[in-house]
Design goal:
231 residues; mainly alpha; Arc Repressor Mutant, subunit A; Four Helix Bundle (Hemerythrin (Met), subunit A); 2 domains; two-stranded antiparallel sheet; disordered N terminus
């Protein structure tokens, strides 16, 4: 049997600190207990705690200044992409409006990278869409296929920043997409988009690709709200 490797003290310390921050024990703007007290409460050595705190400070969670107590940053306002990636890994702690906000960001990004991908590498986009007309009608299959397509479009557009941003959401994206694609209307909307995008790619029509992508992104936000009981 393959047993999972035990977590190292630093990994456990990081996990416990983040849970304390996200769970409200150490809310944004508060200060952490002194190093000696905090290390004792976490059951680790002070060097281990110091290592973890400095790593999390680089990621945007804490503000460490010599001679002052360590401050918990307002991670929604002072955080960065590393914070965002960590929040996604702790999805049970996310606020209710996180997914709608994430979909709004996708609405800003996806039409742009779809357009550029079709204008820059139409044949590549056509190849990406091979078989999409005959996708198995299941939430899991659509979730994976949708992820693969969006990531493929970011690669085809030639701007690696789009890909880096999307990669930070890989597991969370598929997890949420499985919930979204349970709706038959969601699968139908994406089928229509795949077909429209294929037509646009075959014609190397960036305008059409952008319009079709914007339309389905807006529809996905409406469908998510409808699924979760919001007007």
């Amino acid at each position: 049997m393959d047993w999972p490797s035990p977590k190292r003290p630093a990994e456990l310390t990081e996990q416990r600190l983040l849970q304390a921050v996200l769970g409200g024990e150490f809310p944004p703007g508060s200060t952490l207990p002194g190093e000696r007290e905090l290390a004792a409460s976490l059951g680790v050595t002070r060097p281990t705690l110091r290592e973890v705190l400095h790593r999390l400070a680089r990621d945007g969670w804490f503000d460490i200044q010599q001679g002052k107590s360590t401050r918990v940053r307002d991670y929604w306002r002072e955080g960065n992409l590393n914070v965002l990636g960590t929040l996604v890994r702790h999805s049970e702690q996310l606020p209710d409006d996180f997914v709608p906000n994430l979909l709004a960001v996708r609405l800003s990004m996806a039409p742009a990278y779809s357009r550029t991908a079709v204008e820059r590498a139409a044949d590549q986009v056509v190849a990406l869409l091979a078989g999409y007309a005959d996708l198995e009608d299941s939430a899991e299959r659509f979730a994976q296929a949708d992820w693969d397509l969006h990531r493929g479009l970011t690669l085809a557009c030639g701007n690696p920043v789009f890909t880096l941003i999307l990669n930070g959401f890989a597991e969370f994206y598929i997890q949420m997409a499985c919930l979204y694609f349970v709706q038959p209307q969601a699968r139908a909307a994406s089928r229509a988009w795949y077909a429209d995008l294929l037509v646009a790619a075959r014609a190397s029509d960036g305008d059409a690709a952008e319009r079709a992508t914007r339309r389905v992104m807006l529809e996905s936000i409406e469908l998510w709200h409808a699924k979760n009981g919001r007007a």
